[in-house]
Automatic annotation (TrEMBL):
SUPFAM superfamilies: Dimeric alpha+beta barrel. This is Ethyl tert-butyl ether degradation protein EthD. Residues 10-88 form the EthD domain. InterPro entries: Dimeric_a/b-barrel, EthD_dom. It comes from Streptomyces cellostaticus. GO terms for molecular function: oxidoreductase activity. Pfam families: EthD (PF07110). It comes from the Bacteria. The lineage of its organism: Bacteria, Bacillati, Actinomycetota, Actinomycetes, Kitasatosporales.
Length: 103
């Protein structure tokens, strides 16, 4: 599995971010081909001090090639272009292969 994570910094207008994200951006995510699962949260907390991020999004893909294909798709391109409409604080995008833990 391969994971894509988007970490959103504090926006200029948090209420606009939340409303736009839920009303406009997430419906686009629902039509995005490729993710096996996805999730998000506006309740980002740090174990100590203030959290450096306002919101988080994560998506699971079968592998890196599936993620690359999803990001390159027309829907993926529209999603990437839409970020500027709500994420005025910027966003950090990371991705990585997921290693299963065994104990």
């Amino acid at each position: 599995m391969h994971k894509l994570v988007v970490l959103y910094s504090e926006p200029a207008d948090p209420d606009h971010f939340r409303d736009y994200y839920v009303t406009n951006h997430l419906p686009m995510v629902m039509n995005w081909p490729g993710p096996l699962a996805w999730r998000y949260s506006f309740d980002v907390a740090a174990t100590e001090g203030e959290a450096p991020y306002f919101a988080v999004f994560e998506a699971d893909f079968a592998d890196a090639a599936a993620m690359d294909a999803a990001r390159a798709s027309p829907q993926g391109q529209r999603l990437a272009a839409d970020v500027a409409n709500y994420a005025t604080g910027g966003a950090v995008i990371i991705h990585y292969p997921v290693q299963d833990g065994t104990g």
